[in-house]
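Lecture notes, continued. The same structure-token format from the folding unit now serves as the input rather than the output. Read the line below as a description of shape only.
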């Protein structure tokens, strides 16, 4: 794995790896399957992701096992930790981080997140008006029946396009978190380069925000710690990651399996009735940080270096943003002919929806990546560099105020 100079005497950091890209792609695919598992009622259970586990109910237990394996909420937390690591590597390429470099970072980040969000928002608004109807499907869950119901007005479309609202595309609530965390991220990056007392103090502050009663910043207070922990991984997790990689294969497999089980099952067993409960989010964040650290410092990467998985990581943003619209268009098409389903049929139909949604969304995300995302990213890098240079030149050429001595 190549190294990049961070401008610090303490270390140089490895660059973004294929393993991290693959992990991001797998997380996006997990979210797709998770949402598909919630579409049709299994044995009459509404919104199973919000129900307590009941081992006396076989179908509910089976549904919970599937939801745990494909835990979309845990995958979202993994996204946030990965973002913290990736953004740190982006800023670490700059030897001396100044105002112009931060502005260039903001431009790159905006053109990474916003253009596709606008495109999917417009597609969702079109589908609301021309495709979806305000109907209730008897075989569907409450979760499915409450989305894609009414035509949006211009104000709602603008709010969704800017990331302030996710009423037209539910998964986009996480993009609002990404945007807000990106604004704060240069500070988190600066802290991650500090001393241990500074790092620990800021971590405790973020944890206090996370658990502060009554504090609500659009869920940013719950997830900002995940970005911070991701930011710490390149500089501070090297020693424990290397110690893990020097363990024997059985020990490594046992630890990874334990981390995955805790990550997948915490919310299901601990706080299923509460969306983004800080206690569960913290546990999942720590597990996600372990996974990202191990993969980041593993030069081989193993299975995660397969080209197909790396490619899935490249198109993951489109896969994540587009899939909900595809899933619900498919679900609305088949729901009228699936008015009465026995449990096995409902499970099979949900799994079939997951496969069909992935099969349709991957090509759409590929087109979006090459035809839309990559050009916007190139524009962001070019425009950010130009703006940064001009701001730097302006600062350099600005005359300094003369001192007047008394």
């Amino acid at each position: 794995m190549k190294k990049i100079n961070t401008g610090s005497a303490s270390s140089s950091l490895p660059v973004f790896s294929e393993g991290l890209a693959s992990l991001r792609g797998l997380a996006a695919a997990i979210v797709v399957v998770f949402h598909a598992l919630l579409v049709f009622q299994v044995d009459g259970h509404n919104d199973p992701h919000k129900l307590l586990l009941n081992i006396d109910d076989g179908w509910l237990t089976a549904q919970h096992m599937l939801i745990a394996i494909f835990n979309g909420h845990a995958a979202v937390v993994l996204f946030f930790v990965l973002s913290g690591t990736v953004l740190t590597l982006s800023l670490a390429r700059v030897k001396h981080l100044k105002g112009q470099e931060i502005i260039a970072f903001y431009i790159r980040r905006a053109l990474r997140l916003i253009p596709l969000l606008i495109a999917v928002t417009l597609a969702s608004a079109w589908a609301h008006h021309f495709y979806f109807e305000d109907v209730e499907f008897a075989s569907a869950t409450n979760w499915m029946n409450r989305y894609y119901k009414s035509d949006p007005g211009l104000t709602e479309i603008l709010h969704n396009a800017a990331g302030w609202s996710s009423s037209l595309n539910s998964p986009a609530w996480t993009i609002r978190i990404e945007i807000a965390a990106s604004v704060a991220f240069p500070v988190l990056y600066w802290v991650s380069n500090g001393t241990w007392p500074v790092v620990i103090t800021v971590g405790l502050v973020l944890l206090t925000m996370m658990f502060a009663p009554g504090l609500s910043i659009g869920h940013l207070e719950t997830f900002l710690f995940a970005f911070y922990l991701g930011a710490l991984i390149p500089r501070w997790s090297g020693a424990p990651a290397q110690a893990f990689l020097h363990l024997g294969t059985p020990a490594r497999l046992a630890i990874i399996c334990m981390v995955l089980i805790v990550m997948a099952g915490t919310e299901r067993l601990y706080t299923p009735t509460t969306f983004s409960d800080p206690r569960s989010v913290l546990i999942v964040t720590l597990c996600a940080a372990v996974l990202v650290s191990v993969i980041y410092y593993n030069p081989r990467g193993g299975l995660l270096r397969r080209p197909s998985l790396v490619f899935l990581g490249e198109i993951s943003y489109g896969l994540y943003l587009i899939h909900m619209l595809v899933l619900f268009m498919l679900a609305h098409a088949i729901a009228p002919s699936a008015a009465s389903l026995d449990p096995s049929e409902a499970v099979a139909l949900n799994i079939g929806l997951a496969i069909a949604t992935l099969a349709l969304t991957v090509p759409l995300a590929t087109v979006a990546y090459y035809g839309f995302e990559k050009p916007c990213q190139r524009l962001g890098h070019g425009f950010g560099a130009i703006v940064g240079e001009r701001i730097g030149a302006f600062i350099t050429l600005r005359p300094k105020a003369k001192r007047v001595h008394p």
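Point for the exam: Residues 1-11 have pLDDT under 50 and may be disordered.
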